[in-house]
Design goal:
about 5% helix; about 180 residues; 1 helix; 6-stranded antiparallel beta sheet; 17 strands; mainly beta
């Protein structure tokens, strides 16, 4: 069901409540089949160790990085790095289209456990406390105040470093992004 607006367009209405449907930009990108995420999970990172999730951003793409949800079972430092140099590539991990009926593939390729050097720090956070679990959202808490339109033909990396003195930690990294036609 829809109603005709003063702007000459039909506006969607919820079927059950009859309320006008309001969709934010990120939600709209999911329905447009252009939103993606990936789950990087690493169990048992030694004290002082790292877990890295890399994203290769291809030339000619227009990628909006929205946020990454980071969970750690202990104290950790989170860094989002741009234009890193990959030494040894890690294990490929397939991004998932957030519109599960789409089947459309992401332009971005992802890996876990790359060895990296250099890179420019874009954002970061500290999660948890010594011996205490924590969560963080970095890159754009709601997707609007710190969105990054990513440079092209580079590798981005989300690096989580354990700040624990003796205990191992478990970490998950879940970035969210959407892709548009080149601007």
């Amino acid at each position: 069901m829809s109603i005709f607006s003063v702007f000459g367009r039909f506006l969607p209405m919820e079927k059950v409540t009859g309320a006008l449907g309001v969709t934010d930009s990120n939600h709209a990108q999911v329905h447009a089949k252009k939103a993606f995420s990936v789950a990087g999970i690493k169990e048992t990172i030694a004290a002082g160790g790292t877990f890295i999730l890399s994203l290769d951003i291809p030339a000619g793409s227009y990628v909006h990085f929205q946020a990454a949800k980071i969970t750690a079972t202990g104290h950790a430092k989170v860094e989002i790095l741009e234009d890193v140099t990959v030494g040894t590539p890690g294990t490929g991990i397939l991004p998932k289209n957030r519109h599960r009926l789409s089947g459309g593939a992401s332009l971005v390729t992802c890996r876990t456990d790359d060895t990296i050097s250099s890179g420019t720090l874009l954002d970061g956070d500290i999660v948890g406390a010594p011996g205490a679990a924590g969560k963080a959202t970095v890159g754009g808490n709601t997707g609007d105040d710190a969105e990054w339109v990513l440079d092209t033909a580079i590798t981005m990396a989300i690096r989580v470093t354990s700040k624990e003195a003796t205990d191992a930690i478990d970490v998950s990294i879940r970035p969210f992004w959407y892709e548009e036609d080149a601007a």
